[in-house]
Design a protein that fits this description.
This protein is an all-alpha fold. The chain is built from 23 helices and two strands. InterPro entries: Peroxin-3.
Amino acid sequence: MLQSTRRWLRRNRTNFAIGAGVLGAGYMAGQYVLGKLSEARQRMSDERIAKENLRRRFEQNQEDCTFTVLAILPTATDNILAAIPVEQVLEELQRQKAERLSRSVGPSEIGTSAPPSVADTTEDDAHSASMQADSFIHASQVATEEPAEEETKSKKSKAQLWSEMKISSITRAFTLVYTLSLLTLLTRIQLNLLGRRNYLASVVSLAAPQSMAEGSRINLENNDDDNFDQAYGNDFETNRRYLSLSWWLLHRGCLDLIEKVQAAVKDVFGLLNPREEITLEKLSELTLQVRKRVEGATEEQRRTCKWLSFLLPPQDQEDYVLRESGMSSSSESTSPATTTSLRRLIDETSDLIDSPSFTHVLTLLFDAGFSHLVDNKISQLSYKIPPVSESSARVQEIVGGDVKAKVASSLAVFCRQAHSIGSGANNEYLAAIEQVRDLEAFAAVVYSSNFEYESPEGVTASVTRPGTAEGQTPAKPAATTEDSFESAWGKALAKEDGKEF
């Protein structure tokens, strides 16, 4: 029995060897496939986590942009209100009306009457207003005027005062809409560029060897609210200087806007009588004419309209802006690395501002701001047209086309809305502007494009693209930034939700 078993094993040992080899190979192949599947699952999981983390960072960045705009907008508002003191003109009109009333009725009756509003004052005075536009009074002139100048100002006719009131109130409201839109888009560019640098620095620090990453590691999730130097990258000094450049728009750019907007308002509204009754459609048409003079009448003119001079200082004024912002200039005790990094950020910001995509999105923000002012606030408060709903939009459009209101009634709304447009809390206009879908798409492209151009100090970024060796940072051609941005912007517009990056 034992002998026969040995003979059988000897005869079939080749088959056993082949079977064992097949089983072994099958086992090894199975383990290899399982390993690859596990690696693929892990890679997909890592990609999902990375994308979700990137999305959370991006969304947090957009919330930071909103809070930043609300925090610094009142600075520009104060400067614009001081440059166009509409309330002083109104006070002069009310003073003149009180003097006329005191001559026609007893003083005791005057004391019991309520102070007139803009619209009330117009009912009595605007019939004599011959509408020739006059220049507004700067706030700085109030304290420096000589008695002779005050006497001259007090002798201004009602026509002159109402002309000044009309031009100033409209100019102030329109300038604030432009300033709010520009500040919103500038802040989105600044914080998303810094957010991109922070994200890349985080990824690089995690991918770097432990000896390099120790002591400078930045977690992918930063829940420490007061850790500002990690909130927007690890180059705190560069970030401070870069963000301080918004001082130019808040203090200089908005005042330059006043001159441009005021000239357009004078051309369009100059001959309009405050006592005249016009339809909302006519007011919207006049507003559009002002916008065409400021932004451009054709698509080509709007596309080539340059806003850079309102948003960023010229290079020879950058040190002045830094000093006015409370920091030392670039040439004073600043490391070469900080200066280089700051220059790269400024240059990329300038390229974005001069891009056609910036002008496209900015025009949409202007549309949202002016629509909220004229189609919502003026229509409801001056023309008494109820809010538009989807079901009754057509009916209200037909009815609202026949409704007329005095220009003075709209001027009163322009005066009050100027404070709402520049408010730093519960700003309806900012909320309306941020409803523009292309704004978030633009911010997403800024946040996610041109990763390869960022190289955190002390670490070589191992971010690759086709045709680039691993760990090598490609050189930046002169026109590459704008071209790649325009390409990414076109892809972003092609996506329905505008959120994929």
